[in-house]
Amino acid sequence: MIIVMKKGAKKSSIKHVISQIEKAKLKPVPLYGTERTVIAIIGDERILHKDTLMAFPEVEKVMEVLKPYKLASKEGKKSSKVRVGDVVIGGKDIVIMAGPCAVENEKQILNIAKSVKKSGAKILRGGAFKPRTGPYNFQGLREKGLKLLAKARKKTGLKIVTEVLDPRDVKLVSRYTDILQIGTRNMQNYPLLREAGKTKMPVLLKRGMWANYKELLLAAEYIMSQGNREVILCERGVRTFENYTRNTLDISAVPALKEQTHLPVIVDPSHGTGKKSLVAAMSKASIAAGADGLIIETHNNPEKAVVDADQTISTEEFSRLMKELSAIAKAVDRRL
Ligand code: PEP
Ligand code: MN
After folding, report:
1. Considering only CA atoms, which of 270, 280, 275 is closest in space to residue 237?
2. What is the pLDDT of residues 117-162, one digit of tens each?
3. Is the minimum distance from the CB of 131 to ligand 1 under 6 angstroms?
4. How far is CA 3 from CA 33, 46, 65, 288, in A?
5. Whose CA is nearest to atom 6 of ligand 1?
6. Closest residue CA from atom 3 of ligand 1
7. Average pLDDT over the chain, rounded to whole?
8. How far apart are CA 193 and CA 220, in angstroms?
9. Global pTM value
10. Which among 197, 210, 219 has a CA at the least distance from the CA of 247?
11. For residue 214, what is the enclosing H or E element?
12. Closest residue by CA, ligand 1 atom 9
């Protein structure tokens, strides 16, 4: 951290800053210039707060040198892989997660599971606990939905990813799933992040629809700081002034996040656009941009999908898309 004092700052103000740094057991290195004094701090500055320092008399500017997210940053590690059994996310293989928005009934989820498995997906998605904007909308089958997902896993060998909404359900959902999904609305639900961090489950952390990269990385840090390092980030679009699409899918998030973190990054083109006609193009763009995987909503009867029908592609379209994606993966030296 570097603290720049105001022009002509009084000795007492400089002394005050220095004494506070020493109190935190860090080493202050003051550089007395002709006009201003600059104080560099040696040691792990993360224990000091920029805002507190900014509030000291005659402090003009505080510049952080270290990233506020230590475990998620690239400082110690270039890239990391998250293993879900024999499925590796963040390696050469692009991992596709696919399935309906919500688990609706046994026939639906088993049908879709078989179909996406045949097309080459490795992980089955499906919400059992649904975060719905209205309280009277279908909220998911809850534990019954989890049981159906587990049945689909048994029948197909696919791994499961499903959302957990409430810290009190982390244990329950962990008993059934292979990956805990934390959705956009909960990206800053700190008790939920901490609870997921206390498990050994891989966590798929979706970007808040209002969140910038730093906030997403700090949310990942919450999970990691509890001991769980198995975090996969997911770009799923953010809210902008555009209303043709449900969200604006930020493809640049993929390379931008990869510049800042070692964690794998996947993309959700379904929630990212809200339109089935855009899912294929955005899936291709995501892989071309360096995504480690995709999470796609697909249904055997999309018109009848109980949740998110507008953005859900048919299992036939999904199968065609997988073939097209394989060519894109090859072009960027990945495999699908
Ligand atoms: C989902 O993937 O089921 C979901 C609700 O996504 P998001 O949290 O990104 O809206
Ligand atoms: Mn959905």
Report:
1. 270
2. 999 999 999 999 999 999 999 999 999 999 999 999 999 999 999 9
3. yes
4. 13, 14, 11, 41
5. 183
6. 101
7. 97
8. 8
9. 0.92
10. 210
11. helix 213-225
12. 184
